[in-house]
Recover the amino acids of this structure.
């Protein structure tokens, strides 16, 4: 389970430290048991983020089965995808 408060905390940490792969180790240390991964937002496809910021979106991962999948259900979420948003130039 990943709470709304945890999502807000993670978002604040990303804003403070910056959005890139280096944030993963910091978050993993602070949220043991939560799976974190990083990618570019355009790799996600048509899923809606659970939290959206100008520089990144957060998506939830359901890892209960053998394959990971995205979910919007916070009760079954086991991880968070940090998806960097790059502005079109």
């Amino acid at each position: 389970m990943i709470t709304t408060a945890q999502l807000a905390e993670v978002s604040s940490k990303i804003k403070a430290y910056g959005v890139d792969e280096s944030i993963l180790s910091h978050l993993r240390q602070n949220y043991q048991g939560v799976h974190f991964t990083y990618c570019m937002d355009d790799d996600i496809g048509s899923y809606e983020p659970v939290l959206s910021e100008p520089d990144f979106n957060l998506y939830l991962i359901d890892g209960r089965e053998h394959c990971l999948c995205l979910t919007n259900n916070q009760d079954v979420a086991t991880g968070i995808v940090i998806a960097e948003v790059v502005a079109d130039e």
User: Anything to note?
Assistant: Strands lie at 35-40, 51-52, 56-62, 69-71, 79-84.
